[in-house]
Design goal:
The chain has about 230 residues and is α/β, with parallel strands linked by helices. The chain has a single domain, classed as CoaB-like (Rossmann fold, 3-Layer(aba) Sandwich). Helices cover about 25% and strands about 30% of the residues. The protein contains five helices and twelve strands. The strands form three sheets. It has an eight-stranded mixed sheet with strand order 5-4-1-6-9-10-11-12, with helices on both faces. A two-stranded antiparallel ribbon has the order 2-3. It has a two-stranded antiparallel sheet with strand order 7-8. The longest helix is centred in the last third of the chain and has 14 residues. The structure holds cytidine-5'-triphosphate and calcium ion (CA). Cytidine-5'-triphosphate binds next to helix 3 and strand 9.
Length: about 230
Amino acid sequence: ITNNSNSGLLAGRRVMVTAGGTLERIDPVRYLTNDASGKMGIAIAQAARDMGADVTLVAGQVQTMIPDGVNVIRVESALDMLKAVQAHYEKTDIVVKAAAVADYRPKFRAEQKIKKTADSLVLELERNPDILAWLGEHKQHQVLVGFAAETHNVAEFAQGKLKRKNCDLIVANDVSRSDIGFGSDNNEVLIFDGQGLVESVSVRAKQDVAKRILEQAAKLLPEEVL
Ligand code: CTP
Ligand code: CA
C-alpha cells in the first residue's frame, strides 16, 4: 500500500512541495533557467505520499518521473510558481520549498523570435519575487521548510535565510560538492531550526534524506484538533 491515508506519520495532513527549476522566457524559443533535476523535491513528494499525506507537487522543470498519487501543478516561471503556491497555501499543513527558483527574469519578453541583427545584445533582468519569503510573511499554522543552496559558509548562510524568510526549518545543501551535486540520486544535508542544528544527514539516497526532512517537519505540526 503506497497511499494509505488512514495510517502513517502524515495521515490526514496536506503537504505542498515545490520542485525543479523555473524557466524564464526571453522570447518564444529562448529562456533562462538554472541547474536543477527536481529529484530532491520529487523524493519529498513521494515520501510524504508514502507517509499518508495528501500531496500537492508544484513542479517546474524536472528531469525525473513524477510519482503517481500526488496532485501535480506544472509551472514554468517563478511568477507562475508564486501564484500556484499562493492558491494552495491556506489549506496546507507543511510546505517544502525545494525548487530552484530563478532569482531574475528578463525584464522584457519578446512576443516574436528575436532576430540576430545586432552584433551585441544586452539582456536586462529584474528580480523575481521571493516565494519562500512571501510564505514566511503570510505564515499562520503552516510548517515552512526552506532549502539553501550554498557553495561556502553553508551553516551561516542557511541560518541567515531561515531567519530572513521566517522558516521553521531550513535544509542546507553544499552545491559545490561534485558527489552529491545537481542530478545526483544522493544528497547530504544539514537541517537547522531557529535555535541551530537539528540534524546532520550524512550522504544517502535522496529518498532517505526526504524521510528525515519530513520527520523533522512532522514534529513541528500543531496537534490535530479532532
Ligand atoms: N526561493 C524562493 N523564491 C526565490 C528564490 C528562492 O522561494 N525567488 C527559495 C528556494 O526555493 C529555497 C530558498 O528560497 O527554498 C533559498 O534559495 P537560495 O537560492 O538558496 O537562496 P536565495 O534567497 O535566492 O539567495 P542566493 O541565491 O542569493 O543565495
Ligand atoms: Ca537564489
